[in-house]
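[09:14] KT: can someone run the structure on this one? pasting the chain below
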Amino acid sequence: MTIRYRIFYKKTFELRYTALLDMQKIWERYLRRSKIPIAYSKGFHPKPKLTQAAPLPLGFLSDDEIIDFWIDEEDIDLSFIQRSLTDCNQPGIIIKNITKVDLKQPALPTLVTSSDYDVEFLIEIPETKLEQSVSEFINSESILRNRRNKDYDLRKLVHSLRIISTGNPSMPILKMELTALPGATGRPEEVILQLGFDPFITRITRTKTIIKP
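[09:31] RB: done, structure tokens below
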């Protein structure tokens, strides 16, 4: 009997510079240490049945990552999985919630439609310049950029873009919702560059991975 589960978790500073493939290995070891009988694919080179929702660029943090995994044994109580993962304690991963998922549901990456991000400025910046740049961005019909020798319209990839006050007018937070579809994925660092700022003076956190219900 195959069961599919979905874990919602945070990726924190300890794993900030861990790439997608390495995260797969970390999750495989994490589940094994937690004594959770994860299922493996068939064939000469079996691989753990793990699927992550969307890649997170190096250096980004996240409050809302999603991963699916499968087990081939009888139904395991969700409280056991939650307790086992919490007791095992993988640095850089904070479990938020675990749910059971219908086996017939489409692959997790195909369900992702967009992502929300918070951009914190680590040095003081001229807020008036940021406000003007955001206004110009929002009011633009199109913003042509080039990625890997291919032109694209950045404006179409940005659903929303706004400034949040932090009490320090020189260090506001920029909130954005970007499209996350195959061949049409918005990148927060490209938005920051278009606004006239250096992404290396920011801390970027994915606050929400939005999937189809």
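[09:33] KT: thanks! The longest helix spans residues 20-33.
[09:34] RB: yep, looked fine to me
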